[in-house]
């Protein structure tokens, strides 16, 4: 059950999330801007431009507003500065976690929460805006990625002893359809069952297994400590090939190859939209 938070706690959390997304150097200018708005701009607007400022009844209220704004300006700016420092430390921690990975075994040794944070940092380095839901969103979505107006849902499964089954993939696909997300990705440090891979291939859900994940971390890591094995490179090549599938002419989503089950073209391969059933566009193979 998710922990309940007060409105003030939620506002601080939102500010922390924003500061985690912006470059570190924007912190000091933002702190100064908050102080200037409260210390200088608000008093000026209140005394010079407030409607009815010359009325005797309005003067005490304007004076109180001006006094409080000036008095609390360093306090509020200080709170913003403190949150910025926390955000900076948080970003440094995420970066160190990714840089110290040495391969798939070190990734598998992470806790489920550390695993989610690692993925979030890896996607940020791919220029995604990342929202960390903590797994409380519909369908167990752990990360929501945004880039160029397109939304991708990510579910992370830090399963070391067993394979990810088709139920997980099917549930995420259902959430993708209901939320009209552009893509859906399931990431695990292990592997998938055959049924899960078949369902994902038929519906355009992207699967990232241990070897492909290792390659993904290596591609964004600056320290170069992860050295993918030849098997990993082969898996990554397959993933890149899948990404080259044609785009749907109607909605722009990637198309997946399917086989007609009935009708005049039964048994023949064709390209179908990965957004099915919301989009039923098809095209011939070849």
- Note the overall shape: elongated
Distance between the amino and carboxyl termini: 50 Å
Number of helices: 9
Report the oligomer.
single chain
What is the domain total for the residues?
Answer: 3
Mean pLDDT rating: 82
Keywords: Endonuclease, Hydrolase, Membrane, Nuclease, Transmembrane, Transmembrane helix
Transmembrane segments: 15-38, 70-89
Protein name: Restriction endonuclease
GO molecular function: DNA binding; DNA topoisomerase activity; restriction endodeoxyribonuclease activity
Based on the model shown, name its key terms.
alpha/beta, three-stranded antiparallel β-sheet, five-stranded mixed β-sheet, 8 strands, Type_IV_Methyl-Rstrct_Enzyme, 9 helices, 286 residues, disordered N terminus
Give your account of this protein's structure.
This protein has three domains: 7-99, no CATH class; 110-243, Trna Endonuclease, Chain: A, domain 1 (3-Layer(aba) Sandwich), CATH 3.40.1350.10; 255-284, no CATH class. The protein has nine helices and eight strands. Residues 1-5 and 232-244 have low confidence and may be disordered. Strands 1-2-3-4-5 form a five-stranded mixed beta sheet, with helices on both faces. The chain has a three-stranded antiparallel beta sheet with strand order 6-7-8. It has helices at residues 7-21, 27-48, 58-99, 104-108, 112-124, 166-179, 194-203, 210-220, 230-243, and strands spanning 129-132, 143-147, 150-157, 183-188, 206-208, 255-259, 269-273, 282-284. By secondary structure, it is of the alpha/beta class.
């Amino acid at each position: 059950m998710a922990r309940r938070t007060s409105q003030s706690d939620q506002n601080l959390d939102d500010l922390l999330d924003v500061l985690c997304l912006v470059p570190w150097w924007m912190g000091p200018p933002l702190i100064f801007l908050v102080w200037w708005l409260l210390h200088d701009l608000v008093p000026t607007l209140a005394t010079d431009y407030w409607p009815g400022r010359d009325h005797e009844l309005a003067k005490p209220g304007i004076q109180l507003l001006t006094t409080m704004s000036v008095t609390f300006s360093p306090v509020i700016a200080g709170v913003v500065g403190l949150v910025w420092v926390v955000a900076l430390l948080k970003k440094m921690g995420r970066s160190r976690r990714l840089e110290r990975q040495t391969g798939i075994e070190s990734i598998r040794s992470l806790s489920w929460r550390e695993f989610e944070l690692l993925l979030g940092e890896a996607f940020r380095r791919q220029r995604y805006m990342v929202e960390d839901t903590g797994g409380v969103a519909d369908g167990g979505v752990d990360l929501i990625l945004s880039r160029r107006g397109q939304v991708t849902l990510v579910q992370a499964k830090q399963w070391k002893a067993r394979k990810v089954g088709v139920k997980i993939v099917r549930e995420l696909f259902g959430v993708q359809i209901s939320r009209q997300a552009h893509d859906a990705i399931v990431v695990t440090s292990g592997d998938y069952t055959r049924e899960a891979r078949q369902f994902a291939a038929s519906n355009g859900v992207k699967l990232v297994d241990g070897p492909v994940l290792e390659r993904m971390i290596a591609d964004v890591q600056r320290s170069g400590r992860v050295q993918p094995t030849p098997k990993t490179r082969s898996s990554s090549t397959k993933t890149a090939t899948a990404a080259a599938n044609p785009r749907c002419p109607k909605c722009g989503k990637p198309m997946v190859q399917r086989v007609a089950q009935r009708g005049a073209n039964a048994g023949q391969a064709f390209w179908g939209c990965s957004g099915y059933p919301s989009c039923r566009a098809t095209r011939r193979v070849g």
